[in-house]
Amino acid sequence: MAKLPLPEQQSSANPQASDNDEPESSSASEAPPVESGGPTEPSETSVETSTVHSSVSPEEPAVPNHSSFQAKSPSLAYLKLGYTDKDVIKRYGTPKDTYPLPDDAETIEIWEYDGLSVGLNERDKVVYIEIASKTVDTGIEKLDYGMKGAQAAELLGIPEGSRTNVLSLEVSGGWLKLDLDPDTQNVLALKLLDRNL
Length: 197
Description:
Residues 1-69 are annotated as: Disordered. The chain is α+β, with helices and mostly antiparallel strands. Helices cover 36% and strands 22% of the residues. It has 6 helices and 7 strands. It has a 7-stranded antiparallel beta sheet with strand order 1-2-3-4-7-6-5, with helices on one face. The longest helix is centred in the N-terminal third of the chain and has 23 residues, at 40-62. The chain is globular, with a radius of gyration of 31 Å. Mean pLDDT is 74; it is low at 1-63.
């Protein structure tokens, strides 16, 4: 910025020299400082601004962000099938209770949180997620515990059929299932299950 007034001062002091000599000498003498001082300062400012914006961006996913349900990349309560035990602890902390659930193929360890159960296989990978309380955020836009089953079916694209107590949707790697109250047809539980369970 200081370089701009200098050419104006020189051009007003000696107009003929500025027309003939200063463009060459000013471009030669002023170009290096402008290139080294001028662009560096805006680049640093731009980098700092970009850094500030990029540092804000990673924090945004940590804040719950509802999205529409994706059958090709399903998640429930911000967890996906195949996540590790460390991913679960990072989001929800250590469980309040754990217990084994024997299965024919392998034993699943169930981690209990308030209104949320997470099942881990013997390789510490998530194979089961269940929400059984309104206090747990589903992470799916407009899908909530306690909502009408017909609304949930429409939201997820599940064809409405006869009156049923379970809504099922095949998803990548498994199933999304919603248990409905037999009397009210409200959602009692939301489950994301590995295909092998």
